[in-house]
Specification:
The complex is a heterodimer of chains A (516) and B (262). Chain A has 516 residues and is of the alpha/beta class. Helix content of chain A is 63%, strand content 11%. Chain A contains 22 helices and 10 strands. In chain A, the strands form 3 sheets. Chain A has a 5-stranded mixed sheet. Chain A has a 3-stranded antiparallel sheet with strand order 3-10-4, with helices on both faces. Chain A has a two-stranded parallel sheet with strand order 1-2. The longest helix of chain A is centred in the first third of the chain and has 32 residues. Chain B has one domain: P-loop containing nucleotide triphosphate hydrolases (Rossmann fold). The chains are: A alpha/beta (516), B alpha/beta (262).
Chain lengths: 516, 262
């Protein structure tokens, strides 16, 4: 079998299992809430209006944002719970995903339940009263059976939506089929993206068909059809959850949780740290593809034990600093600042920066005699500047622009992959780049020096969660990584994952770093 | 009228929706075994009056008594299980078979399954339906068959009172007459007290022991069919209502006579 495909499929049982567990729980919870609410709403016009408006409102929030919003909310609630009861709960992973997806699944169930009950022939409703049924008997024996096809149609819609939206639970740290899609998009591993999309689409189709079977069975009063549908769902559920149960059973001691944000370098460094721990016999759980803001808060809250962040990011986003006292001073102040603020330990810088920098083709820069940003300001008036989609609105750009008085013939924005292609083809002469990007070495680019220190430093640093600060096993496993990776090595590892052909997986690329 | 005990009584009954009166000052006593027709145009208040008898509608003023007990003093579902009701729009449960439809009230009363099954068979015979319709859904029946099932369902729990709201309204004339005759026969054999709402005065006059004429939410006449047909009426609305079928009958007779002699 094709190697990338084989690799992707080997992860399928776990990811599919979690995806099914998550979607099924969310749909089940959605049914538990939305069905009774729909019944009440069908009898009370005001409740109907309020509940349908609220469910509709939830639906207008982009699902990714809805999932992301539950993380800080749960973090807050967990903090409260710790204060009140002494016990907290995990704000990352399953719970926020479950809650967001449940909310998301409610609208079609609620709307169809209310509509289905409201659509029952008034003559039949009166007949039910006339033959002596109580309100409850009328609901169970007449109204619900007659509304069932409409309700089932709502359940089918909800199921398909939930299974699709469950792929978005990856950034809040829940393993799902979305892991394929998010990592695959970052590393341009299209095999992984396709596996993720196909698996979730097939899952949605199968569930939809089985629910359709139940719907037809109920509609035609054919017991065999709906029993077959239910049996299909039950068998599928058990089969999908089996791999999860087997891992849950051979649980050893509690694992270390290594986090990563959502790009290749982070995946590689997470694998590197996991490797170091596993080499010492520790069990490691990986939570990758965390949103940038989620990662730090998750660490501070103890949801993850360690991950790599960048000094400039922490400086601006956590300490809210805008000045630039220099690379070492930033590290020193971060070390004390993070400790004091959140109890987070800055264990060690890894030795390289992943900073914003301006890059040019070596031949072009040499021809123009440009080595520094000051040279660029003096000689770059006729050049075209390319930036990634956010670069020109970032403080780093404003800072460089004013410090050196940069001006260009034209400015263009690109999606990162195309930005490098534009540089190669001459459509752009200077681009914004990340200093550890593998394409810098591969495309023979040079990074322009920044003598005025206008660009903040972005040292890669290992952060340790407060409750692991005294964990000797963790710190002694990771401490040797201090200063062990230079920027060329990181570039090479990144490139091995990002390049178009002969790609390596993150775990294999991590071995390149250890070889040094 | 007779010495039989009073099965149904309404006293000074009134109903208003948002201050709009649809029924006022209606009083009526129906002895056991009587077949009463409520007639009048649409909006006369006859269906409202009928529905207060089994508490489908709660009156604004006055009270309704069944066998001497105020219906408001009893839980509605329990009351209605003891009173047969045939609906204007038939109202069969489309998801239940004919047998399940007929057996619905006995099941609510927790009758044993064999007793329900036997009762369903008996009722199918009684309303003149073949027994093999028992397993069909209402959608597979003709309009006349459906209303026969409706009558069977109303009689399933062996009520002594049968209420019917325009029971034959949607049927073709042949079916209509046949079913009306069967209902009258059932009324006799089962010793029922029957109240039927209809806007067809001819049907009322031919079928009922007593015709109550309503207009504008009030009872404006209350007499035996023969009396209604022979007396002159002070209220022109009653006169007009009675006159219509009488003139129709005369013209039909004249037409038949002219053919016979022509």
């Amino acid at each position: 079998m094709d190697e990338p495909l084989h690799q992707a499929l080997s992860l399928l049982p776990q990811r599919l299992g979690w995806h099914v567990a998550l979607s099924a729980s969310a749909l089940g919870l959605g049914l538990l809430i939305a069905l009774p609410l729909g019944v009440l709403a069908a009898r009370n016009p005001r409740l109907r209006w309020v509940s349908l408006s609220l469910a509709g409102l939830v639906q207008t929030i982009p699902s990714l944002a809805l999932l992301a919003l539950f993380f800080p909310l749960l973090l807050l609630l967990s903090g409260l719970s710790v204060r009140l009861t002494g016990h907290g709960f995990s704000a990352l992973g399953f719970l926020p995903s479950l809650l967001a997806l449940t909310l998301y699944s409610m609208l079609p169930i609620l709307r169809n339940t209310a509509a289905g009950l409201g659509g029952v022939d008034p003559a039949v409703v009166e007949a039910a009263r006339g033959v002596g049924m109580t309100d409850t008997q009328r609901l169970w024996r007449v109204e619900l059976p007659l509304a069932l096809p409409v309700i089932m149609a709502g359940v089918r819609t909800a199921a398909v939506w939930t299974i699709g939206a469950a792929t978005l639970s990856t950034p809040v740290g829940q393993t799902s089929l979305g892991d394929y899609i998010f990592s695959g998009l970052q590393t341009e591993d299209w095999v992984a993206v396709l596996v993720g999309c196909a698996a979730s689409a097939v899952l949605a189709l199968v569930v939809d068909q089985l629910l359709g079977l139940i719907e037809r069975g109920v509609g035609q009063r054919d017991r065999r059809l709906w029993i077959a549908g239910l049996a299909g769902l039950a068998i599928g559920l058990v089969a999908a959850l089996a791999p999860l149960a087997s891992t849950a059973l051979d649980r050893g001691p509690p694992a270390y949780v290594i986090g990563a944000k959502n790009f290749s370098e982070q995946y590689i460094l997470a694998e590197l740290m996991a490797d170091k721990l596993e080499a010492r016999g520790a069990r490691v759980e990986r939570k990758i593809n965390l949103g940038s803001a989620v990662a730090y808060r998750a660490l501070a809250a103890g949801e993850i034990d360690a991950y790599v962040d960048y000094s400039g990011t922490l400086w601006a986003n956590v300490l809210n600093r805008r000045d630039n006292p220099g690379r070492q001073a930033v590290l020193d102040q971060l070390r004390s600042g993070l400790k004091q603020r959140d109890g987070v330990v800055l264990l060690a810088p890894l030795g390289f920066e992943n900073a914003y920098a301006l890059a040019m083709r070596r031949d072009k820069a040499q021809a123009l005699g440009i080595v520094t940003l000051a040279d660029l300001a003096a000689k770059g008036g006729g050049l075209t500047m390319g930036g990634d989609l956010e670069f020109f609105s970032r403080p780093e750009w404003k800072s460089v622009e004013t410090a050196y008085g940069l001006s260009f013939k034209a400015r263009r924005q690109f999606q990162p992959t195309f930005m490098y292609r534009a540089l190669a083809s001459g459509e752009a002469d200077v681009i914004s780049a990340f200093s550890s990007d593998g394409r810098i070495a591969a495309d023979d680019l040079i990074l322009l020096a920044d003598p005025k220190g206008a660009l903040p430093p972005y040292d890669a640093v290992i952060l340790i969660a407060p409750q692991r600060a005294g964990d000797k096993r963790l710190t002694s496993a990771l401490a040797p990584l201090a200063g062990s990776i230079d920027v060329r090595t990181m570039q090479a590892a990144n490139y091995a994952v990002d390049r178009d052909t002969d790609k390596l997986g993150a775990a294999q690329a991590a071995k390149l770093l250890e070889g040094k | 009228m007779t010495d039989a005990p009073i099965a149904i009584a309404v006293q000074n009954l009134g109903k208003a929706y948002d201050g709009q009166s649809v029924l006022s000052e209606a009083s009526l006593s129906i002895p056991r075994g009587q077949f009463v027709a409520l007639v009048g145009g649409s909006g006369a208040g006859k269906t409202t009056l009928l529905k207060t008898l089994n508490a489908l509608i709660t009156p604004t003023t006055g009270r309704a008594l069944i066998d001497g007990r105020d219906v408001a003093d009893q839980p509605g579902p329990a009351l209605r299980r003891g009173i047969g009701y045939v609906f204007q729009e038939v109202g069969l449960f489309p998801h239940l078979t004919v047998a399940q439809n007929i057996g619905v009230t006995p099941r609510l009363l927790d009758w044993p399954a064999e007793r329900i099954a036997a009762r369903v068979d008996a009722l199918l015979d009684l309303v003149d339906l073949p027994r093999d319709v028992a397993t069909r859904l209402p959608a597979a029946l003709s309009g006349g068959q459906r209303q026969r099932v409706g009558v069977a369902r109303a009689l399933a729990a062996e009520p002594s009172i049968l209420l019917m709201d325009e029971p034959f309204g949607a049927l073709d004339p042949v079916t209509r007459v046949a079913l009306a005759d069967d209902v009258r026969r059932l009324h006799e054999t089962l010793n029922l007290t029957t109240v039927m709402v209809t806007h067809d005065v001819g049907e009322a006059l031919l079928l009922a022991d007593r015709v109550v004429v309503m207009a504008g939410g009030r009872i404006i006449a209350d007499a035996a069919p023969a009396t209604l047909l022979t007396e002159t009426h002070a209220d022109p609305r009653v006169a007009a209502l009675i006159d219509a079928p009488r003139r129709q009958a005369k013209r039909l007779a004249a037409l038949a006579g002219s053919r016979a002699h022509g």
